[in-house]
Amino acid sequence: MELENLRYPIGRFKAGEVHSLDETKTNIQIISALPSKFINLLGSWDEEKLETPYRPDGWTIRQLIHHVADSHMNAYIRFRLALTEESPTIKPYMENLWAELPDAQTASIDLSLQLLKYLHIRLVLLLNSLSETDLQRTYEHPETGRIYPISEVIAMYAWHSEHHYQHALTLAQRNNWVA
């Protein structure tokens, strides 16, 4: 399998697109489903499987799961900032360095799977409560200089959810770890 497909199994996110209310509702459903999809796929994996990188020079599955929890915690805070401040500038973080921290390399994935489960309950509760006006509220990302409406951020995190789930699933399929 070529490296681009291993890195982006569902393709790259298309930034700057406008998302309808129906698309946003679908994206929230994708976000909502992620924790149970990961729990169902990874719940019985042993340590050897969890230490397997999903691609050459990629993160291990353990690092991947901890990354998703880190990323989605940041997203939750960013949504709340955008809803309570006028187009705030969010704080970026060094995701690659976070994946190298000791907890991301050694902690049980159950910690992050449970964190995702409960974080997503709160996140989805918040996202489902938003009005069409709320969905147009924004934040600025200082690294890109772009202003992001909440509806686009929801789409980005739906993509992010499926993107990383597919990393684990396609690894499992390549290694015959799933029926």
UniProtKB/TrEMBL annotation:
<feature type="domain" description="DinB-like">
    <location>
        <begin position="35"/>
        <end position="167"/>
    </location>
</feature>
<keyword id="KW-0378">Hydrolase</keyword>
<protein>
    <submittedName>
        <fullName>Putative metal-dependent hydrolase</fullName>
    </submittedName>
</protein>
<dbReference type="InterPro" id="IPR024775">
    <property type="entry name" value="DinB-like"/>
</dbReference>
<dbReference type="InterPro" id="IPR034660">
    <property type="entry name" value="DinB/YfiT-like"/>
</dbReference>
<dbReference type="GO" id="GO:0016787">
    <property type="term" value="F:hydrolase activity"/>
</dbReference>
<dbReference type="Pfam" id="PF12867">
    <property type="entry name" value="DinB_2"/>
</dbReference>
